[in-house]
Design goal:
The complex is a heterodimer of chains A (312) and B (304). Chain A has 312 residues and is an all-alpha fold. Helices cover 67% and strands 0% of the residues of chain A. In chain A, helix 2 crosses helix 14 and helix 4 runs antiparallel to helix 11. Chain A is globular, with a radius of gyration of 24 Å. With 304 residues, chain B is mostly helical. In chain B, strand 1 and strand 2 form a beta hairpin. The longest helix of chain B has 41 residues. Chain B is globular. Chain B starts with a helix and ends with a helix. The chains are: A mainly alpha (312), B mainly alpha (304). The interface between A and B is large, with 116 and 103 residues.
Chain lengths: 312, 304
Amino acid sequence: MSQQPVQPALAVTTRYQQRSQAARTAAAQRGRQRTRRPQLRRGGRVIEIVLLSAAAILVVAPIYWTIVTSLRTPAQSFTNPPDWIPTHPMWSNYSAVFQSVPFWDFLLSSFLVTGFIVLGQMVTSCLAGYAFARLQFRGREPLFWAVLATMMVPIQATIIPVFLLIKQFGLINTRTGLILPVVGTAFGTFLMRQYFLQMPRELGEAATVDGATQWQVFYKVYARLAGPPLATLAVLAFAAYWNEFFRPLIFLSTPSKFTLPLGLVTLQGYLGTGSVSVVLAGVILSLIPTLIVFLVAQRRLVEGLTFGSVKG
Amino acid sequence: MALALGRPKASANLKRRRETRFAWLLILPTVLFVGVFTAAPIVGSFILSFFSYSVISPARWVGLANYRALLHDSNAQHAFVVTFILTAGIVIAQVVVGLGLAVAVQRRMNWARSIFRSAFFVPLLVSGASISIVFSYIFDPVFGVVNYYLHLLGLPQVPWLNSSWGALLTIIIVVTWQQLGFTFIVFSAALGAVPKELIEAARTDGAGGWRIFRKITVPMISPSILFTVTVGVISALQLFDQPYVLTSGGPGYSTETVVLDMYQQAFQNLRFGYASSISVILFIVVLIATYLQFRISRKWVFYS
């Protein structure tokens, strides 16, 4: 995700509604399909299941290996075969992470940076998305397309001027310097705009007739209904910035301010090969928050990732 | 209400003005942040690429000297070649494997499907940098678990991280492993939307599975193929985290990507002007790649 793995780019005009429509039809078809499943020959099906399971095991294996190896004694961590079923789990490796490096600091840094970015992106793109979708003003279309066009710009193409700018502001080696440049988001604005576009105009008109101000129409009517796309945006931004490495590497120099990925890569350098298990324990710990987000909001994540993939 | 009816034109004007002001207020944060930190810097990169600048001394105009130097910089050119090789490998692998898995999972029961889906999804949540630490141990040529099992199976050992082709292959495997969940999810959604009637009809006409896949499924999901290829190419051209952690560009310069080169030129050698010229070229390459894909896609992508 550094290369913002989860940053579906591209301006393909897509409608949230159509996507969920497609999902519903797909679900209906799946239901039907179960009753009249094509009669594949049994042998073919068995081979297919075996291959599929093998693929799934191969995909999960590196993470499972990380868990079991993080529980071995540091002296044994490189001995093969791996302890696929841990016999004497060394839980102390997990406390060792906190003792040998400022892991609490990394954790705090990651939460602060990611939290503020997520919050900032939700606010700015909800406001702008609503304006671009529902308000009339001169220059709306060109401005929207200009914002959208910045989605094409890879961060590497802007990183040097942004670095110099942040340095100019005196924010280099601060968490604020890491947060500020990414508070505005073209992708988020696009996502929110598409959602607001498909909400009925009548909602706002009714509120206006009842005497609501412009702000009340936005805040009390439309924004209250924008939970789903905001959740999608939050989940995507969380996964992207929690795992970010390139910008922290460039912007931060004091270890106590490092975010988790940067801290872990540095930790690996400090500890050397002697305590692989401790490093791996750190990797597993850093994974837990994203895993929780995934479990809670899997559907939102999938929605966000496929946003823009089906031409509507 | 009565007042408004009395002076319709003036009130409409006032209303429009108020709406404009309100709209500008709402878009201000986004326009400001995107403008200052993305739009202006891209122009900044372009301008900086005509200067020699090292932070310590003031910037000096050098015209096209950076670009001329780039033409003679075999390191930088090699970095572009490495990046193209990695991009091709990663994109082909993640599209082919992702599509294959999506097709296989599509035919399973719902519960099985959600298990497989979660399994393929997990790598997407891991930081590319942290998981590269893990893979540097797993693919260690001497102690690594992969070579251990290859040896057990009687297969030859692979010089994963200590040969140039091995290191390239390792990076392709690691990035594909990570991105698989993305292509898989996109293809699963697309396959679910292919009308079953079409496939039934083809089957009754006597078409075999492979032919149905090639003649019906692939054209029907071609927009998704274009999407995954485009996103894949853009992100692979920017590859940094995995080579930085796994190989630091080595052995030698064999996995030194463009962004890695740019990073070293800017933040280690403090050649900001020169590094900017590299990033400008990278940006142009990304634009051309995206444009080409949309041009070519007109020939084969099918929009119903």
